[in-house]
């Protein structure tokens, strides 16, 4: 659809004009997504720094999949990329390059991030400013905003963390607070119930 194409165009323009470093977060499905392929190829073509974060769930595509990268991409992915002048040979070559760690830096994660602290730690590693140890979480304040995300899905937890960061800009959340339920996973189901009941 035309709205999707405009958004993709804007993403590629942003990488070309405003991005200094592209962080490629490799999970199980990252390299099947046409938008990710376009971002990766564009970053290399425009000489941006590329840092690859390899999550434990990442499985590199087989050589046969790389040779037929147009079929490896999600439905109609190759068609979308070709519309933007991104050749499948470029996608394949950049995938081989980031998997091998050539021309980019690599950060290997030992475990899937499951809390906002894990992502703060990752950012600290990326910018080479270690963060302090994980904070001790108390019970949320009554009336706080709770964000629920699947703690087993690192992308969902990351999105929840971004929402918390953005929510802190609103006056309402400053008064009552905001909480990501995934940050309370170590408390088990009883802890979850307590967190929700307290809020």
Q: Percent of residues in helical segments?
A: 40-55%
Overall pLDDT, averaged?
Answer: 82
Strand count, sense and closure of the main sheet? 3 strands, parallel
Please state the CA-atom Rg, rounded to the nearest Å.
19 Å
Condensed summary:
The chain is mainly alpha-helical and 199 residues long. The chain contains 10 helices and 5 strands.
What attributes does this structure have?
two-stranded parallel ribbon, three-stranded parallel beta sheet, 11% strand, 199 residues, mainly alpha
Give structural notes.
There is one protein chain. This protein has 199 residues and is mainly α. 50% of the residues lie in helices and 11% in strands. The strands form 2 sheets. The protein has a 3-stranded parallel beta sheet with strand order 1-2-3, covered by helices on one side. It has a two-stranded parallel ribbon with strand order 4-5. α1 (2-18) runs parallel beside α2, α2 (34-45) runs parallel beside α5 (77-83) and α2 crosses α6.
Question: Topology of this structure?
Answer:
Elements: H1 2-18, E1 21-26, H2 34-45, E2 49-54, H3 63-67, H4 69-72, H5 77-83, H6 88-100, E3 105-108, H7 116-126, E4 145-147, H8 154-167, H9 171-176, E5 178-180, H10 188-198
Parallel strand pairs: 1-2, 2-3, 4-5
Helix pairs in contact: 1-2, 2-5, 2-6
